[in-house]
Amino acid sequence: MAVTNPSREDFAALLEESFANEDLFEGSVVKGTIVAIEKDLAVIDVGLKTEGRVALKEFNGPGRENALKVGDVVEVYLERVENALGEAVLSRDKARREESWIRLEEQFNKNEKVTGVIFNQVKGGFTVDLDGAVAFLPRSQVDIRPVRDVGPLMHTPQPFQILKMDKRRGNIVVSRRTVLEETRAEQRSELVQSLEEGQIIEGVVKNITDYGAFVDLGGIDGLLHVTDIAWRRVNHPTEVLSIGQTVRVQIIRDQP
Question: Which domains are delineated in the chain?
Answer without folding.
Answer: 8-91 (2.40.50.140), 113-180 (2.40.50.140), 195-250 (2.40.50.140)
